[in-house]
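As promised in the previous annual report, we have extended the structural survey to additional targets. Below is the entry for Platelet-activating factor acetylhydrolase.
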Amino acid sequence: MVRSKRRAAWESCMKPRTSFAVLSLAILACLSARATAEDLLSADGRYGVGVLRTEFVDPARAMQVANEASAPRRLPAVVWYPAQAATQERAVGYLSEAGIATTLPAIARLFAYPPTDLQSLASARVRAQANALPARTKGGFPVVVYSHGLFLYPEQNTALAMQLASHGYIVVSIAHPGDAADLRLQDGTLVPTQPMGQADDPRFAEAWKILAAGADLSARRQALAIYAQAQPGSRVGRAATQWRDDAIFVANAIHAQHEPQALRQVMEHADRNRLAFVGMSMGGAAAAAGCRHVVACQAAVNLDGQNLDADLYDSPVQRPLLLMLSDWPRYGLLPPQPKDPAFSPNDLAYEPWRTAGQDPRIVRLRVQGLRHLGFTDLGLLVGQKRVERFGDLAPADAAAAVNDVVLTFLDVQLRGQVPATLDAAIARHPALVPHKPVQVQRWIEQEQDGTKD
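The corresponding structure token record, generated without further manual editing, is:
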């Protein structure tokens, strides 16, 4: 994918000028060329973007894991898809009216943001059409099942979803009620965010500390056995399983042509055998954990989600995986994770430890200058305390890197583009640093040599 016109225009503005008058005119032009948040919530593919809202219903599971009477489990979804006609109008609000009234105050509460800092989410509009006529293509469009982050919301990566839709992907972003920011179901029922840490098995947190910061692999093997036993007794562990199962249910419903009625017209133009799971934070971990359980899922993308699935430690993920990580050596992420660039706790997942870093289908990247929430649209839309909240990487550069690399990775895995195109996409963005699980490799070598640090 070539540079966007917006980016090229801004770079052109920054060229040296020969006179003060020319420089003054250039500054005015540059100020008008700079992308607004709403400009960044646009897409550059060949298709227009349609958007609709619907709800999946799983009669076999409950809304709350510990409360069978809360069945069925309802999963609100926002769907972005290729539309027949493009629009230059910002015809759709970034959030729905229910989202503005219910979800926005919850985000402020959960992240301790002053409500005024989030007003841009209420006013932002995007270049998409509600319920637009879907585009058609020979063979159908691939489908992406997207999962948001903990305490977040299904629109949190609208910039990415619109970019994918404009390039011919149907993106089904599901909410995970109870762990999402407060939301309303289609019938108006309020589902508030459930608190964390209720009657947790304390062994889970203790085992996690050793996985993140233990002395060696031997200590981690012992901790992993305890971690697996304690996971069902942990609020986070139960949520991780539920989120994985949410994504699996939605993917299987789509594959079996059991999607909601409101989605039928769009899915008539889908290739139900070409699916991918994508997510951010806990949603990214769920995407990586769930894809291997769905025959039609051909690839997964994890945007800075720490693996929580005990079965994926020291084990293959069984699908091509793109893992994009925040800049933990600078900002940290989950205590007590060390700020060692040679080690991320996710290095313990997705591959057997003895062959860590050897599977070419597993792509691990660190995004320099980006904090965890910088993977979301909040970095584009919330201007206050930007570095403190999202990192010092410019939001436009962060969004461009994520959108470009995710799109290219999916094109390689689902559309047969040559792998070199992914290498080129990574090279286009100076903030992206390929990450190798160096410390895990060292530990394996030490075990084989019978030595320790």
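The first strand starts at residue 48 and ends at 58. Residues 1-35 have pLDDT under 50 and may be disordered. These points will be discussed at the next consortium meeting with the crystallography subgroup.
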